[in-house]
Amino acid sequence: MNHTPVQKIDLAAGSSATTVTKKHRAVIISNTGAGTSTVTLTFTTTDGVSSGDFIIRLVANSGPFYIPCKIASAMATTTNASILLLA
To answer: Are 63 and 3 in contact (CB under 8 A)?
Structure first.
């Protein structure tokens, strides 16, 4: 599936959740820190309502992780990470 990048969001470890407002169809998550990054994503339903959390741990140098879904917010708890929103 072809996607167009919409926005890159940098997540600082330990910061509060970042609300996602840009329209998107999928996300790519990358670990940008030296250790294992724990990222919490809050998914949205088709009508845009927050539905539930998904926690993923990305080890250093693991490469990007593609998730074909919409998210409402994202937060990194242990190491910095970045998220690319795709339309």
So the answer is: no
User: Residue 9 has what pLDDT?
Assistant: 97
Concatenate the DSSP letters of all residues of 27-78 into one string: EEEEE-SSS-EEEEEEEE-TTS-EEEEEEEEE-TT---EEE-S-EEEEEESS
Residues 6+ apart with CB under 8 A from 34: 60, 79
| CA 67 to chain CA centroid, nearest Å | 9
The residue ranking higher by pLDDT, 47 or 64, is 64
| Alpha carbon distance 22, 36 (integer Å) | 27
Check whether 62 has a pLDDT greater than 90: no
Residue with the two structure tokens 């080890």: 59
Query: Domain 5-86 - what CATH class?
Result: mainly beta
